[in-house]
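@channel sequence for tomorrow's demo:
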Amino acid sequence: MKDQDIKVEKKAHNEGFTYSHPSFGMVKISRGSGLKAPLFGSEIEHGSHVSITVSHAEVTQDLGRNWYFSNGIITEAILSPVQYADLISNPNTEGVPCTIRSTETDGYIKYKPIETVTEHVESVVEEKLSEMNDRVSNIYSDVSSILDKKGALNKSDKESIKQLISKLHADLGSNMDFYQRSHKEALNKQVLEAKSEIEAVVLDAKLKLGERALNNAEAVKLLLNDK
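structure tokens (generated this afternoon):
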């Protein structure tokens, strides 16, 4: 554990002292919007996000109060609206995915996306269907060979056919049901995130319109006189 003394400076532009220490920090939460981009742990691209920035800090005691200033970013993380809602509403968990945009040691970090859950499930289902098609062809060939034998089917032949059909039934049943459910869950998550993205865009637009209205004297006057 590092045990460092507080650094004290006398700044020329004030009468007080400025204090700094590695344990002094500032945290900032801000909303942003811009070009659509993918985020880690999200199923869609986002045009709006929430940024959490942690910085070093120093404090100046002057004019009877403390003045806090950020002094170099330690890290900045970006979250989608859904991720941010999960973060603040579900404490004491492993946490939620976020996209780290910069750190003190790495500087700006360009995000490298992986395929979404939906894309992954779709690729797996496509692969499984291809395997299933090959398996059906092989089973058809094996069953045909048994049925083409001369004479009546014996007990061993019947058992072989039952095993082949049973295996095909298992593959077409529970396995495909699992991937179908996974695909549905991934699509539902996409819909939820898309709705949240729209709500975030509308909220951002309302806030901007509200700021413009407050900066317009005539608009403020109309609002105050509205009965």
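heads up for whoever presents: Residues 128 and 134 are 10 Å apart (CA to CA).
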